[in-house]
């Protein structure tokens, strides 16, 4: 049995006339009659009672019509969905981001635009550090990730991975950045331009992870809190617990209750990047990458 047999049968059953069914199908009447006869032979039952000017469905024919319509509807849906998946307009993507990436307008706009451009797609967002995102893209656990990486030597950076860790993965640079210092909004030095790290020697530092006591410090920093993520660091700074080194870039947005400013005499380079697996043929992922690329060019 072929799909053609079902399509011919449903047309004949809906028209109750082989000639009109032939017109609907754009075939000859003998072609319809022979196809129905072949179908009845294969099933071993009569689907129609033939009369002079019309045909009438048998009980078996009425049953087969109900299921035949369902089969044709399912095939139509399958074809439509397959085309949409192939065009990258339907499917599921899992996207990683870090607490710092969440603050970047490009990340927010990319997620928003995917919903506008491809409303039938499902995006699953998972918050995880940049290093973990790289591992999960490699393993296929996530499809792509927004990461921050350092361009400087690994032994003198902020607690973000070095760009070399991206390795064989595809990546796209979204924005270049540097290093700055975050202060409580009411800190006496907030708003003073042209300061360097030595001006904060008497301050207590809130650090993310075990890093920070590195080559950038011209003094041994007094660490008052060591936290696991940037959000906690920012929150503690906002309530006056201390100050902290943070990544800065032209578009990166920090909360209004802290003051972030660049520092003199520190040559530190960071990058905000999108990463994804090299060689992936997933059309939806390709559309996502194209959307991010378009947004990054427009900025």
Provide an overview of this structure:
This protein is of the alpha/beta class and 299 residues long. It has 2 domains: 3-86, Winged helix-like DNA-binding domain superfamily/Winged helix DNA-binding domain (Arc Repressor Mutant, subunit A); 91-293, 3-Layer(aba) Sandwich (D-Maltodextrin-Binding Protein, domain 2). It has 8 helices and 11 strands. The strands form 3 sheets. Strands 3, 4, 5, 6, 9, 10 and 11 form a 7-stranded mixed β-sheet that branches. Strands 1-2 form a two-stranded antiparallel ribbon. A hairpin with a 4-residue loop joins strand 1 (48-50) and strand 2 (55-57). Helix 1 (3-15) packs across helix 2 (18-25), helix 1 (3-15) crosses helix 3 (29-43) and helix 1 (3-15) packs across helix 4 (59-86). It is rod-shaped. The model has no long low-confidence stretch (mean pLDDT 89).
Secondary-structure element string: HHHEEHEHEHEEEEHEEEH
Structural class: alpha/beta
Question: What is the CATH architecture annotation of the largest domain?
Answer: 3-Layer(aba) Sandwich
Query: What general form does the structure show?
Result: rod-shaped
What percent of residues are in strands? 15-25%
Number of helices: 8
Spatial extent as radius of gyration = 32 Å
* Distance separating the two termini: 57 Å
List the helices and strands and how they pair.
Elements lengths: L2 H13 L2 H8 L3 H15 L4 E3 L4 E3 L1 H28 L4 E7 L7 H13 L3 E7 L2 H10 L4 E7 L19 E15 L19 E5 L13 E6 L2 H9 L5 E5 L9 E5 L7 E7 L6 H16 L1
Helix pairs in contact: 1-2, 1-3, 1-4, 2-3, 5-8
GO molecular function: DNA binding; DNA-binding transcription factor activity
Organism: Roseovarius pacificus
InterPro entries: LysR_HTH_N (IPR000847), LysR_subst-bd (IPR005119), WH-like_DNA-bd_sf (IPR036388), WH_DNA-bd_sf (IPR036390)
